[in-house]
Amino acid sequence: MRNKDGLTPKGLFYLTHEILHKESISGLQAMANTLLVVATLIISLGITGGMTIPIADINHRNTPFFSRKTWYTFFFLSIAFGTCLCVSSMFFYASVILPVCWSKAEEESVRLRQTKLVFGNVSLFASLALMFPALTCGSVLIFELSNWIFYFICALGLIILVVHLTLDYNRWIGIVCSVLSYLEDAPSDSPIILRPICKLYHLFLTFAKKKA
After folding, report:
1. Which residues contact 105 (CB under 8 A, 6 or more apart)?
2. For this UniProt entry, which segments traverse the membrane (predicted)?
3. Residue 183 pLDDT
4. Residue 66: helix, strand or coil by DSSP?
5. What is the pTM of this model?
């Protein structure tokens, strides 16, 4: 359907809000570009840490609580999952920076880019969270630590987590609300990878409404 000027409703809306649309896209791209640099630094540290921990006397039990082999397992699993999450965040940020369509600027959805940025942030924070147990395991493997030092490191990490959640409580609530809002209002032609999530969320809403 087109008006007398040959514009579709979508094209007319974009023409009316063109400046605001471009400013929103530019702001999201700048934020994603900054976070992409942070993710690059984190993945560099993770890969470097995974390659520099020496594998020696792996069957000895001269480490707190577990054998060295168990600590190695925890270390490499933390590094592997943290690196994968960091890579996924980099992909999300890159998809925010790169245009969806090079020829039609109106095809670039601001809300979809915001959702990608949110998923990238969640992946990045999860990667950072996994780097702490990797750091703890690496310290146990390299240094001869007493049990009280291990307790101190864990307590320090717990304090940092509590402080972060206390200060950024509203941020995480906003992230959850943003994702749920997108899933609730997602169009029928949403990306294939999001369709199962959207269906599960709609089923959950239906079940919750019936219970209410």
Report:
1. 14, 21, 22, 99
2. 30-51, 71-96, 117-142, 148-167
3. 60
4. coil
5. 0.68
